[in-house]
Amino acid sequence: MFQNSAKLISRICSPLIQTSIRHYPAPVKRFYRKTGIISSNGRYEITLDQRKLKTPKGAPFYVESEPLAVAVATEWDAQKETIDRSSMHLAALSSTVLDNPSGLKKMDIVNYLVNYISTDAILYHSSHEQRLKELQLAEWSPIVDWFNKRYDVELKATDGLEVPSFPPGTAMNISRYLSSYNEAALNGFMFAVDTIKSVVLTCACMDRFISVEKAVLLARLEEEYQLGHWGRVEWAHDMQQLESQARLSAAVMFVYFNSSNAFVKQKIAGGEI
In the beta sheet, which residues pair with residue 35? Predict the structure, then answer.
């Protein structure tokens, strides 16, 4: 009887055990030898050997900036035995612009960025750790002061939980500035803000008031302060910092390439990278 009961339990539990197993997709092996660029009517397409690159939705992949095309082709060329799409930020941003999976229009992105300012990371100072608050005032206040002067607004920090209120005209001034960029560049802005959780730091970085490395360090100020007290797992925290720098660098380049008239003067021989 015991054996029969054990068999019954085994049959019932077996499907449950099987469904709990996770099957991760195998990494895609590199299937091409070389990358290239072809241009037509002001558009630049990427080739992998003789095949044209497509977006995740299957649409033809193209960009309207030659330097951006070179950068995307370089990302593909830098892949080793397997393809790590998570490391190709410029290719991903370009595909997002073409596929627009969220159906966002230009003003949707502008409104998202303007509304994000009320939760901007560097506008919220510590209310219970005096040394941390002093550090935030010393490091963040000059960036906020620059932002206020640059965009003719009056952002103020808070050390409470309440959302700070801004004078009338703040949203309009910032919206006017952001609306001067095209939709592709605004996708770069959104990618940067989502990376460092700050519109203020993103704008300071885009305007070259601070470097990418500085922006990431300022965004991680509280975390770095806490790590100074409790210690850090070197490889883990360093990897997080480097990944944030890579993402922000890609966003800055993407905005620049999509809002600049710069072009590659030297022709790439044979269209190869």
Answer: 48
C-alpha 123/C-alpha 261 separation (Å) is 34
Residue 47 contacts by C-beta under 8 Å, 6 or more apart in sequence? 35, 36, 37, 38, 53, 271
Instruction: For residue 18, give both structure tokens.
Output: 């099987």
Are 79 and 101 in contact by the 8 Å Cβ rule? The answer is: no
pLDDT (tens digit per residue) in 160-176? 777 777 888 999 999 99
Q: Measured between alpha carbons, how far is 232 from 234 in angstroms, rounded to an integer?
A: 6
Q: Give the alpha-carbon dihedral of 221, 212, 120, 128, to 10 degrees.
A: 10
Model confidence pLDDT, tens digit, residues 201-227: 999 999 999 999 999 999 999 988 887
Question: CA neighbours within 13 Å on the CB side: how many for 46?
Answer: 29
- Phi/psi for 221 (5° steps) reads -55, -50
Q: How far does Cα 101 stand from its chain's mean position?
A: 16
